[in-house]
Design brief:
Strand order of the largest sheet: 12-25-26-27-23-24-13
Number of strands: 27
Distance between the termini: 11 Å
CATH superfamily of one domain: HUPs
Structural class: alpha/beta
Shape: elongated
Helix content: 10-25%
CATH topology of one domain: Rossmann fold
CATH class of one domain: Alpha Beta
CATH architecture of one domain: 3-Layer(aba) Sandwich
């Protein structure tokens, strides 16, 4: 498992841009984030967003948000709006620079006609199977199409009829005429336009042909004046094709720079696989808090600042590597530790009766122990409490290292008194069901001289406790690299979601959707933004207080 790259090794793109500006190769920086609106964004896209928008901000340039909507069979307005929401939530603004590939359909068509007239493109009428067979392999050259030498006039006529909807899907395709013997498979007469009688989410039924991604992408960058076209390494072999189109059309040439995509352990990054998880109901939707989507992480309670910090921490490199999910979780903890209000909640309750205390007090408890400026809340205290069952042990194995409750042992109740266990009661099955304790009533909010108690436990007053639903989310997969499994679905973690209840202090009823709290000594929990209603919050566990998976690897 790779560790995050050091900042010094993550700046090669910054070095290129700085040199371009210093030498006068470029006089400004224009980047773009170009998602296809065929799914929701995931954490890998977040890395690209932070990189492209971050570099534009750093160099006082601008970053465009452009939707590469060239395949109407897979694209929806729902995805467009979700992507815009994600980019905004991450803290970035494209201003007036929102574009769509469909904005450029007329220009792309005109350029295709220009290449046909120059003898650089032709209409191929082979079947898909014939084209595949003639394309060759990595070790064998491809074969020219029998239609490769059609006249310019015939190609123009056929292409016009393709545009007018006179042919069926798949009957013809427009290809660039480059080199069927090229060692780069992308240069073996790649497809430029295919026939699709499909309704487009923006252009409706105006077009019956649509440009292929590899034909449209580089020209879109050129139209927008993008100076630095930053993309992942899988596009490195496509760069010669993009350059070929730019050169033949004699248009502005962006500079393409490739970086290694993000590979995150215990998850998958394939849109196809993420879509399968959704459509086959392995998760509740794209925004399921177990998903690596930006919307899922937002719903789970990951702060945008934590994701930005994660993207900066892992750096930008040229070699593919895997980042452990714990790195992202650590960034989440670091951010929430400073911002999340503290509250008390018990998930595995054990009853406690304080025998020498017969009143109800409203204690003053800080919202954050290190930040008094964040104020405090009222915490009810009575002689009937719930504590976590794990905070009592009848026979601790290492008494000198055990600092919780046990027979004749003392602990401090968080924000309250020191108590001692005088007696414990078992049921007919031998299970401990109640503790009888006494409180040192002189220890509220202080530690008198000579009274040293190392253990501090959380609790809630039983008469005041509120029972609320809690979802315990864990890693979606229990295999570090699910793609290595024979079937990645077999690596799904059957315990990635456990639904239970917590007994909580009453102030948590006021939790607002999306608000995150630290349940003291338990973890960070966020009010679910979809299923919560006013006065009836549902809590998602955002992250544990420490990396609980480290011990099971």
């Amino acid at each position: 498992m790779s560790t995050p790259e050091t900042p010094s090794s993550s700046n090669f793109i910054r070095t290129i841009i700085s040199e371009d500006l210093q030498t006068g190769k470029r006089d400004q920086v224009i980047t773009r984030f170009p998602p296809e609106p065929n799914g929701y964004l995931h954490i890998g896209h977040a890395k690209s967003i932070c990189l492209n928008f971050g570099l534009a901000e750093e160099y006082a340039g601008r970053c465009h948000l452009r939707f590469d909507d060239t395949n109407p069979t897979k694209e929806e307005d729902e995805y467009v709006e979700a992507i815009k929401e994600d980019v905004t939530w991450l803290g970035f603004d494209w201003g007036q620079h929102l574009y769509f590939a469909s904005d450029y359909f007329p220009q792309l068509y005109a350029w295709a006609v220009q290449l046909i007239k120059a003898g650089k493109a032709y209409v191929d009428s082979q079947s898909a199977e014939e084209m595949r067979a003639n394309r060759g392999t990595l070790t064998e050259a491809g074969k020219d199409s029998p239609y490769r030498n059609r006249s310019v006039e015939e190609n123009l006529d056929l292409f016009e009829k393709m545009k007018n909807g006179e042919f069926a899907d798949g009957s013809h395709i427009l290809r660039a005429k480059i080199d069927m013997t090229s060692p780069n498979m992308n240069l073996r007469d790649p497809a430029m336009y295919r026939i699709l009688h499909a309704h487009h989410h923006r252009t409706g039924d105006a077009w019956c042909i649509y440009p292929m991604y590899d034909f449209a992408h580089g020209q879109e960058d050129s139209i927008e004046g993008v100076t630095h076209s930053i993309c992942t390494l899988e596009f490195e072999d496509h760069r010669p094709l993009y350059d070929w189109f730019i050169k033949e059309l004699e248009i502005f040439a962006p500079q393409q720079i490739e970086f290694a995509r993000l590979n995150l352990s215990y998850t998958v990054m394939s849109k196809r696989k993420l879509l399968q998880l959704v459509t086959e109901n392995h998760v509740s939707g794209w925004d399921d808090p177990r998903m690596p989507t930006v919307s899922g992480m937002r719903r789970r309670g990951y702060p945008a600042a934590a994701i930005r910090s994660f993207c900066e921490r892992i750096g930008v490199g040229r070699s593919a590597s895997w980042i452990d999910l714990s790195v992202l979780e650590d960034c989440v903890r670091e951010e929430l530790n400073g911002t999340a209000f503290r509250r008390q909640a018990v998930l595995n309750p054990l009853k406690v009766t304080i025998t020498n205390y017969d009143q109800v007090e409203m204690l003053d408890a800080p919202n954050h122990p290190q930040q008094p400026e964040l104020g405090s809340r009222v915490l009810p205290m009575s002689n009937q409490l719930w504590i976590d069952r794990d905070d009592f042990m009848e026979n601790p194995p290492s008494p000198k290292k055990y600092f919780r409750l046990g027979p004749e042992r003392e602990v401090r109740l968080r924000n309250s008194y020191i108590i001692k266990c005088d007696e414990f009661i078992k049921d007919e099955n031998g299970e401990i069901v109640e503790l009888k304790c006494s409180a040192d009533l002189d220890t509220l909010g202080k530690n008198p001289e000579g009274r040293k108690v190392k253990g501090i436990i959380h609790w809630v007053s039983a008469p005041h406790a509120v029972k609320l639903p809690v979802r315990i989310y864990d890693r979606l997969f229990n295999q570090e690299n699910p793609d290595k499994a024979q079937d990645y679905l077999s690596a799904l973690n059957p315990e990635s979601l456990q639904e239970t209840f917590a007994l909580v202090e009453p102030s948590l009823l006021e939790g607002k959707p999306g608000e995150t709290f630290q349940f003291e000594r338990v973890g960070y929990f966020t009010v679910d933004a979809k299923d919560s209603t006013e006065g009836k919050p549902v809590f998602n566990r955002t992250v544990t207080l420490r990396d609980t998976w480290a011990k099971v690897k």
